[in-house]
Each structure stands twice: as structure tokens, then as C-alpha cells.
Design goal:
This protein has about 250 residues and is an alpha+beta fold. The chain has six helices and 14 strands. Helix 1 packs parallel to helix 6. The protein is globular, with a radius of gyration of 18 Å.
Length: about 250
């Protein structure tokens, strides 16, 4: 479908990297359009990266098609242009579900006794409450229940579902000799209360190390670690995002 043919309903929500619109014809669906925005440090660093939205949309579309094919319940329906998806309408659960195979990032800051590269088997799953002002704090099952964010059955379903998502994507990346270090996903509930993997899974969502070599990383961590953001640095970053979109598109071949 060409971009000129897309009709949007009312704007329902807008985040740092996407906008959600009502579907003009089907109340069980929404239209999700990706933005060229890039941010880090809970929005402390922000840039616009023309071309990122298309790369993010392609990556998300490929990843969710692979998850759907694996029988994992997701909100993904279709890609309707370079930057736009149709997805099932969900009430989002305000948790980031983070799966870790390799110790990196914030985990190391919280566990000084663990060295970068230590492996978790089974995959470690952590929950973070989505709150930029509080810097998305780590939360326990008990806190999630106390805050009435999710019940214990849903928490266990998200933990098991997160591991399943990770293992499917880990296997796909392994076919290309890329190590999936960690991955962040979100869940939503349909109007019927069915739990689905939702939101996006793109190059902002994971750490990926070709050949297991951190110095060859292809993901958003490159942006986080830039001493200074330059046009040259952003151009190189976009090349990585496009490369990842191309690699994940190969999963559908």
C-alpha cells in the first residue's frame, strides 16, 4: 500500500520513537508510525537521524514476523509503508522486560562482582518499571503486584514469554554469527485480556555483537558511548541501523 493511501484515525499516543493512531476502520487495530528520533539517558541526549524510522520499521517488521511464525502471540499484523505498521490494539503494561544472556550494561553497574561477558543459563529476566523521571527502576515481582501493574500469573507469563522471544531471536542471530547479548521487550493486553508481545523490537532494543566481539557492536550502544555526537558519527550509526535492518530481513528469506 502506498503512503498516500494510508488513512489515520485520531492520535492515541506518542513516545520518543513512535506515534500510535486509531485505525480508521477497525477498532481492534491501531496504526504505529516510527520516528527518526534517537535518544539516550532517559532523553538527556537527543538527535534526529533521518532514515532511522525506515530502518526501525523494517527491523521490527522482520522480527515480529519471525516471532509470529514461531507461534509467539504478538500484536503485529502488517507493514503498510516504509515507516508504518498495523498492529493489534493493546493496553500497554508499563514494564520493560529485559532478557540477558551475557552480562553487560546496567547489570554490571548493579553487580560489581560480575565481569562483562559472563553468561547466564538459563537466560536472566529482569523487570523495569517505565518511568523516565525515576530512570526506569528495577522492580521485583512483589512490587509489580503491589503497584497493580500485573498479577503473578501475568508476571510468570511475561518471564516465560521473554525467554521464548530471546531464544528465537538468539538462534536467528547465531545463524549470522552474531551474539544476542540482551534484549528488551514490552507486553500489552488486548481488550479481551490476552497478553501479547507488543511495542517494537528494533536496533534500540538489544545489544548485538558480531562474532561475540563487543568492539564490533551494531546497536544503539554506539550512540550511548559517543563522547560527542557528530554528523560523521550519526552517519556511521545510520549505516549500522540499515545493516541490521538488512540482516533481519534475511531471516524471512
Amino acid at each position: 500500500m502506498g503512503g498516500s493511501e494510508i488513512r489515520f484515525g485520531e492520535k492515541l499516543a506518542e513516545g520518543k520513537t513512535k506515534v500510535i493512531y486509531a485505525h480508521p476502520d477497525d477498532p481492534s487495530l491501531v496504526i504505529m508510525t516510527h520516528k527518526d528520533n534517537l535518544s539516550a539517558g532517559d532523553g538527556a541526549r537527543r538527535n534526529v537521524l533521518p532514515g532511522k524510522a525506515a530502518a526501525a520499521c523494517e527491523t521490527t517488521s522482520s522480527v515480529f514476523q519471525v516471532l509470529n511464525a514461531a507461534g509467539i502471540p504478538t500484536h503485529y499484523v502488517d507493514k503498510i509503508d516504509d515507516t508504518t505498521n498495523v498492529v493489534r490494539r493493546c493496553e500497554m503494561i508499563p514494564l520493560e522486560v529485559v532478557m540477558r544472556r551475557v552480562a553487560a550494561g546496567s547489570y554490571l553497574k548493579r553487580h560489581a562482582d560480575v565481569t562483562e561477558g559472563a553468561r547466564f543459563d538459563p537466560v536472566l529476566v529482569e523487570f523495569f518499571y517505565k518511568d523516565d523521571a525515576a530512570h526506569d527502576p528495577l522492580v521485583t515481582d512483589e512490587q509489580i503486584v503491589e503497584m497493580e501493574v500485573a498479577d503473578r500469573v501475568e508476571i510468570e507469563a511475561m518471564r516465560a514469554g521473554g525467554r521464548e522471544v530471546f531464544e528465537v531471536l538468539e538462534a536467528k542471530w547465531a545463524e549470522q554469527d552474531v551474539v544476542l547479548v540482551d534484549c528488551k521487550i514490552e507486553f500489552g493486553r488486548t481488550v479481551d485480556g490476552v497478553l501479547l508481545v507488543a511495542d517494537v523490537i528494533d536496533n534500540d532494543s538489544w545489544r548485538i555483537w558480531p562474532g561475540g566481539d563487543r568492539t564490533r557492536m551494531l546497536d544503539k550502544q554506539i550512540y550511548r558511548e559517543m563522547p560527542e555526537v557528530t554528523d560523521q558519527g550519526l552517519a556511521e550509526l545510520l549505516r549500522k541501523y540499515v545493516q541490521v535492518a538488512e540482516l533481519t530481513a534475511e531471516w524471512l528469506a
